[in-house]
């Protein structure tokens, strides 16, 4: 009886460790996509209790409506992309959630613009995850102009 219990316990431990090794960790964004300069100010993305937030140079934070981990949308060189529309700089914050139901997963995007020395967040857009560069309209269309 003891042998049987020991074997069952050993099998359970092995199965648990195999499952732990097989469960992938969410990919962490590249360092290049965690910071951006907007309007001459360096901004960083930080984890605020599971929520993505902007960390400003003065130490203050501004929450987004995007889950952590997040990143700035990349340009073709793989660096944080800044679009300028009507003389207003805009960045796009993204979070991609892998999903077994949707082959590519689900991406949330939220634009942030610097207007009249204030950072304004747009509504959140949901789409499929992808590795390409976002279209300019994703930076501008989420705002009311």
Instruction: Spell out the helices and strands N to C.
Output: HEEEEEEEEEH
Instruction: Report the average pLDDT across residues.
Output: 82
**Low-confidence runs:** 13-27
User: How many structural domains does the protein architecture include?
Assistant: 1
Task: Give the count of helical stretches.
Answer: 2
Biggest sheet features:
5 strands, antiparallel
Query: What is the end-to-end distance?
Result: 74 Å
Total number of beta strands: 9
Beta-strand residue percentage: 35-45%
**Measured on Cα atoms, how large is the radius of gyration?**
20 Å
SS-derived structural category: alpha+beta
Percent helix = 10-25%
Specify the overall morphology: globular
Q: What is the compact description of this entry?
A:
The chain is an alpha+beta fold and 145 residues long. The protein is built from two helices and nine strands, in the order αβββββββββα.
Which keywords apply here?
145 residues, 2 helices, 4-stranded antiparallel beta sheet, alpha+beta, single chain, 5-stranded antiparallel beta sheet
